Amino acid sequence: MKENRYRVDWEVIEEIVVLHRSQGGWAKELNLISWNGDNPKFDVRWWNPDKTRVGKGFTFTKEELKILYDTLPEALHI
């Protein structure tokens, strides 16, 4: 198995909302994040309590998040 030597850096620009918190303290959050110094993107993923470790998640540009926002009422039947 190959060792992953790729380093990922992040900066939390804005904490927007905690969607869920596990019993172990990890939180699924929506935040504005800059990954590796790039332009910030909206990000939904799991974070440990002190934000030193991250789980899998999704990133969205503002345009992608707007499409999701516009689609949700119909998808949720509200």
Order of helices and strands: EEEEH
Number of helical segments? 1
Strand order of the largest sheet: 1-2-3-4
The CATH topology label is: Transcriptional Co-activator pc4, Chain A
- Total E-strand runs: 4
Distance between the termini: 47 Å
| Overall 3D shape | globular
Spans where pLDDT lies below 50 across 5 or more residues: none
Largest sheet: 4 strands, antiparallel
Kindly state the percentage of residues in helix. Answer: 10-25%
The residue-averaged pLDDT reads 93
Radius of gyration: 14 Å
Strand content: 35-45%
- Count of domains: 1
* Computed structural class: alpha+beta
CATH class: Mainly Beta
**Could you say what the CATH architecture is?**
Roll
Descriptors:
78 residues, alpha+beta, Transcriptional Co-activator pc4, Chain A, four-stranded antiparallel sheet, 4 strands, aminoacyl-trna synthetase
